[in-house]
Design brief:
With 131 residues, the chain is α+β, with helices and mostly antiparallel strands. It folds into two domains: 37 residues; 78 residues, Beta Barrel (Lipocalin). It is built from one helix and eight strands. Strands 1-2-3-4-5-6-7-8 form an eight-stranded antiparallel sheet, with no helix packed on it.
C-alpha cells in the first residue's frame, strides 16, 4: 500500500512539473510571436494618417508644433503657454488633401493653403510660416 501511495505521489509531482514546463514554453513562444509581428504600414500615398505632427518655424523665428487629428478634423498647438484646439469646417471625406483646409475656434483661424497662417478673429496675423 505504501508503494502505491509513493508511486501516485511521484507521478503527480512529475505531472505537475511537466505541465508547468509546457506552460512556460507556450508563454515563451507567444512572446516571441508577438515581438515578430510586423508593424502597421505607413499610410499609402494620397491617404492621410490618422494623426501627424509638424514643427513649423515662423517668420519671427518662433517655432510651433502642430498636431493634426485627421479623424476628428482638428489641429492643436501650444501658443503662449495655452493649448489651442481648432476644428476644420471641411471634413476629411469632403476634402481628403490636408492643404487648403481651414480650422477655427472662437479665438483663432488657421489656414494652410499657401503656407501656415494663424490669425485672430479680428484678422490680425498671429503666426505665419517662414517660406
Amino acid at each position: 500500500m505504501q508503494k502505491i501511495v509513493l508511486i501516485v505521489l511521484v507521478v503527480s509531482v512529475f505531472t505537475a512539473c511537466k505541465s508547468q514546463e509546457e506552460q512556460s514554453a507556450s508563454t515563451a513562444v507567444e512572446t516571441i510571436a508577438d515581438s515578430m509581428q510586423t508593424p502597421e504600414p505607413p499610410a499609402t500615398a494620397g491617404k492621410l494618417a490618422a494623426t501627424a505632427t509638424d514643427e513649423v518655424e515662423g517668420k519671427e523665428g518662433k517655432t510651433i508644433s502642430f498636431t493634426y487629428d485627421n479623424n476628428a478634423s482638428t489641429v492643436s498647438f501650444e501658443l503662449d503657454g495655452k493649448q489651442v484646439v481648432l476644428t476644420s469646417i471641411e471634413k476629411i471625406s469632403d476634402m481628403p488633401a490636408a492643404n487648403g483646409r481651414t480650422y477655427s475656434n472662437e479665438e483663432f483661424t488657421y489656414n494652410n493653403k499657401d503656407g501656415i497662417k494663424l490669425t485672430d478673429k479680428k484678422g490680425k496675423l498671429i503666426f505665419e510660416e517662414k517660406q
